[in-house]
């Protein structure tokens, strides 16, 4: 959701096999108080899996202190994706109090690059080691008994100074009107710190997405066009997959 005028990103911490802690974090220049927001999430056990309909999904993590301007972590998939998968990533620890988010780029069927990015005023400054989690899933619409999900990509246009000129996503009809969706930037155009926010969609669409920036360095929140990956589920549910065996694919 998108409530209030302050920039905010989701942070995840205290992950166990049965739980995790989620909170909203505003950049350091703001007051740290924020309106109630709706946050959608997915949890995937680390590993490479085949879902009942044959869809490949892979999840993993990397420990790093790399920040934007200091190189990228290169992630190599174990699964044999036929084309570039949709990728979600998330900082999964809070070892440093500074605001930070993940940025992705250069995704192919073999892997992608990922790095942490601090708020603009601290862009390039050091950061403590954190665990970055990621999930990659084949693009397309999948039907798993009563659950339907869609994974895809769109291109967001360049945004103006203060405008939320994003893109409205219309999901496959089988997902229904109350789909659970999440989105992540799959490209890195320009050096400004940025991440994806959800907002009220236009009539006939299911979700509006736009790119948010912080104002720690300057007031502008304009941003270059970016590729956005998204995943949407028809309902909240548990999905069981089989362990991936590359000899069978």
Indicate the low-confidence ranges by residue numbers.
none
Q: How would you write the strand order of the largest sheet?
A: 6-9-4-3-17
Largest sheet: 5 strands, antiparallel
Shape: globular
Treating each run of at least 4 consecutive H or I residues as one helix, how many helices? Answer: 0
The sequence of SSEs as H and E is EEEEEEEEEEEEEEEEE
Q: Portion of residues in helices?
A: under 10%
Question: What is the alpha-carbon Rg in Å?
Answer: 18 Å
How is the secondary structure organized here?
Layout: E1 9-13, E2 21-25, E3 47-50, E4 56-64, E5 73-76, E6 86-91, E7 100-105, E8 111-118, E9 130-137, E10 140-144, E11 147-156, E12 167-169, E13 180-185, E14 194-199, E15 207-213, E16 226-233, E17 242-243
Antiparallel strand pairs: 1-2, 3-4, 3-17, 4-9, 5-8, 6-9, 7-8, 10-11, 11-16, 12-15, 13-16, 14-15
Describe this structure in words.
The structure is a single chain. The chain is mostly beta strands and 249 residues long. It has no helices and 17 strands. The strands form 5 sheets. Strands 6-9-4-3-17 form a 5-stranded antiparallel sheet, with no helix packed on it. Strands 10-11-16-13 form a 4-stranded antiparallel sheet, with no helix packed on it. A 3-stranded antiparallel sheet has the order 5-8-7, with no helix packed on it. The relative contact order is 0.21.
Which features characterize this protein?
mainly beta; single chain; 41% strand; 249 residues; five-stranded antiparallel beta sheet; four-stranded antiparallel beta sheet; globular
């Amino acid at each position: 959701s998108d409530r209030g005028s302050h920039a905010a990103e989701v942070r995840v911490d205290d992950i166990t096999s049965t739980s995790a802690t989620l909170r909203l974090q505003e950049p350091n220049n703001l007051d740290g108080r924020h309106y109630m927001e709706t946050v959608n999430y997915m949890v995937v056990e680390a590993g490479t899996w085949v879902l009942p309909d044959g869809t490949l999904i892979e999840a993993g993590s990397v420990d790093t202190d790399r920040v934007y301007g200091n190189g990228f972590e290169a992630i190599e998939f174990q699964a044999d994706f036929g084309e570039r998968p949709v990728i979600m990533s998330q900082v999964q620890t809070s070892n440093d109090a500074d605001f930070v988010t993940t940025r992705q780029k250069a995704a192919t069927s073999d892997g992608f690059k990922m790095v942490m990015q601090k708020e603009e005023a601290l862009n390039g400054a050091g950061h403590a080691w954190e665990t970055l989690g990621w999930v990659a899933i084949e693009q397309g619409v999948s039907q798993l008994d009563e659950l339907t999900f869609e994974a895809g990509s769109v291109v967001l246009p360049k945004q103006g100074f203060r405008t939320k000129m994003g893109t409205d996503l219309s999901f496959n009809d089988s997902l229904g009107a109350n789909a659970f969706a999440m989105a992540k930037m799959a490209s890195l155009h320009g050096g400004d710190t940025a991440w994806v926010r959800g907002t009220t969609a236009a009539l006939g669409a299911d979700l509006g997405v736009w790119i948010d920036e912080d104002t720690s360095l300057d007031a502008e929140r304009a941003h270059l066009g970016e590729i956005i990956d998204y995943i949407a589920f028809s309902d909240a549910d548990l999905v069981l997959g089989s362990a991936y065996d590359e000899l069978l694919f």
